[in-house]
Amino acid sequence: MKHKPNILLIGFHNSLNIDSMTQIAFKNCNTGQEAIELLIDENFDLIISKYQLDDQNAIELNQSVKSVKNYCANTIPKNNKLLIITTNPEEEQLCKDNKTLFFPEKLNLKSLILKLIDLPREIKRGDQKIAIINFKDLFKRVDNNREFIQTVIEKFFEIWKSRIDDIQTPLNNGEFKLAKDAAHKLKGVLANFSMEAARTTIIELEKHILDNDQELSVQKLNQLIADIENTHKFYLDNQDQFKS
Description:
13% strand; Four Helix Bundle (Hemerythrin (Met), subunit A); 7 strands; HPt domain-containing protein; phosphoprotein; five-stranded parallel β-sheet; protein kinase activity
C-alpha cells in the first residue's frame, strides 16, 4: 500500500479547495499555537502556512517548528518541511533572509502540493531508487519460505530498539569502536531482511562513526530510526506479499 501523505494547513480558514485531493490526508488549524500542539503529537510530510497567522507570523512559527524538531530528535524525529505562502515581495524577502521555503500566493498551490508530495512506493536516495523492502530478493534468499521469514521479521520488529540502543549508548559516550561494531551487526540483519533503505542509511552511519564524527553520526542514527519505523509500516501495509 502506498503511503498516504499527511499535510498540515495553517491559517487558510478552509479557503483552499482540496476536495478532489483524496489521495492526501489534510489537517487544518488557524494559529501557530494550534499547529505546534499538532506537530508534537503527529508527523506531517509537509506544513503549509499563511505568512500572517492570527497569533504570529510564519517566521516566528518556523522557529517553533525547529524547536519541536530538536525536542523530538532523540525520540520520534520530525522530518517535516515548512512552506510559507507569501502575498507580497516584502514577505518573500523576509523568507529569503530567514532561509525559509516560500511560495507566492498567486501561483498554483494545488499543483505544487501534488508535485511536492508525489511519494512513490519506493523511496529515493539521490538519483537511485532504493526499495524499502526488496521482497523479490528476500523471498529468493529463503527459498520462498514466506511463513518462516515473516515470523523472523516480526521478532526483529519486537527488539529493534534495543539494537539501536547498542549503537546509541556507546556513541553518546564517544566509544566509537563499540558503536561501529553494533552498527555493523545491525547492518547484517537489515541486509538479511532486504531492508534496503535502512541498510543504505546504516552504511552511511558506519562511515561517520569511523570518522569519529559524533554530530553527523547522531543525525544519521536518527534517520536510521525513522527509516526502520517507515520499514515497519511498509511491512504491515504489505502483508499480502507473505501469502504463498
